[in-house]
Amino acid sequence: MFKDLKGFIEPGSRAESLVRELDRKNLPAHVAIIMDGNGRWAQARGLPRIEGHRAAIKTVREIVETAARTGIEVLSLFAFSSENWKRPRREVSALFRVLEQYLKKEDHILVENDLRLKVLGRREGLPASLLREIDRVEKMSELHRHMVIGLALNYGSRDEIVDAIRSILREGRLLPDEVDEKAVAGHLYTAGLPDPDLLIRTSGELRVSNFLLWQIAYAEIWTTPILWPDFRKEDFFQALLDFQKRDRRFGDIRSSQ
Q1: What is the predicted pLDDT for the residue at 249?
Q2: DSSP letter (8 states) at residue 252
Q3: Given 4, 23, 38, 84, the catalytic residue
Q4: Which residues are CB-neighbours of 186 under 8 A, at least 6 positions away?
Q5: CA-CA distance, 127 to 125, in Å (whole number)?
Q6: How far apart are CA 108 and CA 62, in angstroms?
Q7: Positive or negative, the Cα torsion across 121, 122, 125, 131?
Q8: Is the pTM of this model over 0.85?
Q9: Through-space distance between the first and last CA atoms of the chain, rounded to whole angstroms
């Protein structure tokens, strides 16, 4: 069980030093990550781009465990955007195979550590075999409560908002003047989850790439030039520390802390 950081952090390491500085009572409830830089990581090593995606899975394992042990309630990971269909078909197909294999091999980690998987995004167009794995793992883990892993797959935030509005209209229970923020939020893919407090983006890019646009309205944003396959637990802890130094006012003149 990923209960705490004891035995997970190497004594005398930079990670241990950073953890000592963390205020465990002031952690973000929801951390969202744009996992960027897999292709560049592979190309810099003279490897096919798919090898970057395979290396990325190792980082996913480490950061999922790190977040769960630290006490994060929700960890959302941007795996494949609705715009990524523009990439070469061969790369897209290979990426889906990597994801499917990951779900098959890592499902025991969800069971053993009380982790819930929630896939965010449109399911149309995804391979049937991948959809079967998604349905199986979501069902298997639906009652788990230690941490939610939001896997954004075939995800686009504008699509999400459109889908939410369509869902409200189909239900026909609300008049136009009755549609408010709560109604829209309740029909998003993330319904029932807290909005992200912290958004992390790797690879040095300074954009949000159509990720959780509604939900990150007041999220703190932290970027790093580190490519996702090289991102490690100490980088995650650094992001949490920087988050704790922010003065979050949510439009007020007074601090929320």
Answers
A1: 73
A2: S
A3: 84
A4: none
A5: 6
A6: 15
A7: positive
A8: yes
A9: 31
Confirm whether 84 is a catalytic residue. yes
Active-site residue, selected from the candidate residues 4, 36, 38, 247:
36
**65 is written with which tokens?**
């465990």
Q: Which two structure tokens, joined as six digits, stand for 179?
A: 């549609």
Instruction: Give the phi and the psi of residue 70 in degrees, each rounded to 5.
Output: -75, -30
Distance CA 97, CA 134 (A): 12
26 carries an active-site annotation: no
Q: Is 224 helix (H, G, I), strand (E, B) or coil?
A: coil
Q: Residue 219: which of 59, 73, 33 has the closest Cα?
A: 33
What are the tens digits of pLDDT across the range 3-39? 899 999 999 999 999 999 999 999 999 999 999 999 9
> Which amino acid appears at position 97 of this protein?
R
Query: Domains of the chain by range and CATH?
Result: 27-156+196-244 (3.40.1180.10)
